[in-house]
What we know:
This protein starts with a helix and ends with a helix. It has helices at residues 4-10, 29-40, 54-62, 76-88, 94-106, 113-141, 147-182, and strands at 27-28, 73-74. It is mainly α and 183 residues long. A two-stranded antiparallel ribbon has the order 1-2.
Amino acid sequence: MGKLPGILKELHLDNQLTPDNIPNIDLYMDQVIQLFEHTFESSTRNAEEKVLTKTMINNYAKGKLLFPIKQKKYSKEHLLLISLIYQLKGTLSINDIKTTLTDINEQIDDINLDSFYEEFLTVAADNVEHGKKDITERINEMTADTDELGDVLQILALVHMSNIYRKAAEKLVDQLAEKKNLS
C-alpha cells in the first residue's frame, strides 16, 4: 500500500492545457501536436504512447468532432476542443464524444468557449483532489492475504470504480442524444 502516493504523483493528474498555454495565433497541425506533447507527455503511460497524432486530428475533423478548420490552421477554440476530446477519448467512444460536443461545435460563434473551458479546468482540478483522497482511502481499507493478491484487488477495485463512472457518463450521453432527437 506504500506505493500508492508515488503512483498518484507519477500520474501527473493535474496536467492540463490551459488557455494561457495557447499562443494568440492560429497553429499548423505540427505545432498543435508539439503543444499537446509538451503539455501531456508526462501523463502518458510510457514513452511510446502518443498524446496526439496527425491521424487522430484528421479523424476528429472527418468525424465532425471539430468545427471546420480554416486554411490548415487551428484556432484557440480548436485547441480547447481537442483538449476536451483528449479528456473524453479514454472513456467514451468517438460517437459519444461527437454527441457530447455537437452543441459546442454548432454554436462555436455564439458561446464563450474560454469561460466554459475554465469552468472545466476548475472541475478537473477539484476531481483530482477528491479522486486522490478517495483512491487512497479505498485502497487503505482493502486487505488481502499477500502483496500480489493485494495488488490484484487494488487493480480490480480501481477498474470497477472506473466502470461505474464510465457507465454513468454513457447514460448522460444517451440522455443528451435523446434530448436532441426530441427537439
